[in-house]
Specification:
By secondary structure, the protein is mostly helical. The protein is 48% helix and 6% strand.
Length: 98
């Protein structure tokens, strides 16, 4: 299946999310290999600037996440109740002593 976002073809799921959001995932999640305090602070400053420039971004992120869940995990919320045990609990004693 081919995903086209804003005229670009996304090859991987990561590319799809980045194209849909307009920002790289590493900006929000951080790099895989860790980062220094200075790198973290710079990343947080950039994220704050982006959120200040685009107040609709959190809504777009929520929409992309909901669409991904709906498209790729339709059975995620199909809950099957656990069967109740037919064994009865043994009763110990007849009552509390007063």
């Amino acid at each position: 299946m081919k995903f086209i976002v804003a005229g670009h073809t996304a090859v991987t799921a990561t590319e799809f999310v980045e194209l849909a959001l307009g920002t790289p995932l590493d900006l929000w999640l951080g790099p895989d290999g860790g980062e220094s305090e200075m790198e973290w602070a710079a990343r947080m400053d950039a994220a704050r600037d982006i959120l200040a420039d685009d107040p609709t971004l959190p809504d777009r992120v929520s929409r992309v996440a909901a669409e991904a869940i709906e498209a790729f995990a339709p059975d995620l919320f199909n809950v099957t109740p656990l069967s109740r045990s037919t064994a009865r609990r043994a009763r110990f004693g007849k009552g509390a002593a007063a």
